[in-house]
Design a protein that fits this description.
With 243 residues, the protein is an alpha/beta fold. Strands 3-2-1-4-7-6-8 form a 7-stranded mixed sheet, with helices on both faces. Strands 5-10-9 form a 3-stranded mixed sheet. Helix 6 links the parallel strand 9 and strand 10. The model has no long low-confidence stretch (mean pLDDT 96).
């Protein structure tokens, strides 16, 4: 059995995001798949989703509810889970089959090659696969001295890539950024709907807009100047897949 996991904390993403992700995973896997959500509040989450508490971690309050919390997943034991786990952020849209994410370079840490740093060996942890019990020093070092790690690295994905020099990146067509790969350049973004490439399997919504915004053509932006050029056309394919 292959296992997909996610984390939900705080209030930015509600149970509907977990339920949609679960539904997308089930539709886009042919192999038997276990879906686990680590959360501090399971209210409203589908009963078919396996719920586990947020893993314990010694994390400073000012980063406690940021992606740094993902480091809690690198501990062993991990709530009875074992083997290779595929982690997915809640704000993803799954548009293709996920089974290959488990057979690709099995046993190794596999991650998205960060779109904004293409010349560096840094992963983007919107989607990554790791093996429980391997590279546990990532958790141990942070848990022992979080301030040291926080002073050396700006974000958690830089820290992870630094600690795993033999990481591998997913094929570049599998995981795309809505904002960095699909958005038409200004001023075409006012007239063209962002396309969905045939080979894409995961579309990541880093920052803004979220899927719920892009599907209706809304780009949340308070800055008046940025509002003049940050625009997205209603993106119909999101509604087809994000359900």
């Amino acid at each position: 059995m292959q296992t997909v996991i996610c984390i939900k904390w705080g209030t930015r993403y509600g149970s509907d995001y977990v339920n949609r992700l679960y539904s997308m995973v089930k539709r886009n896997t042919k192999n038997e798949t276990r879906f686990v959500c680590f959360t501090d509040d399971a209210t409203g989450v589908e009963k078919s989703v396996e719920i586990k508490p947020l893993p314990e971690i010694n994390i400073p309050e000012h980063v406690a509810w940021t992606p740094w919390r993902k480091l809690s997943l690198w501990q062993d034991p991990l709530e009875g889970l074992s083997g290779d786990l595929l982690f997915l952020d809640l704000d993803l849209v799954v548009t293709g089959n996920l089974d290959d994410f488990f057979s690709y370079e099995p046993g190794r840490y596999a991650v998205i090659h960060n779109w904004t740093q293409p010349n560096l060996q840094i992963g983007n942890t919107s989607c990554f696969r790791f093996t429980v019990g391997k590279h546990t020093h990532i958790f141990d070092q942070f848990n022992t001295d979080p301030q040291k790690v926080l002073s050396d690295f700006r974000i958690e994905q830089q820290y992870i890539s630094d600690q795993i020099p033999d990481q591998v990146f997913w094929p570049k067509d599998w995981c795309l950024s809505f904002k960095h790969n699909l958005m038409p350049r200004w001023p075409l973004n006012f007239f063209q709907e962002p396309p969905l490439p045939d080979d894409a399997r995961i579309i990541a919504f880093t920052g803004k807009p979220d899927p719920e915004d892009a599907v209706i053509g809304k780009w949340p932006e308070k800055n008046f100047i940025k509002k003049s050029y940050k625009h997205v056309r209603p993106t119909k394919w999101i509604a087809e897949h994000w359900r």
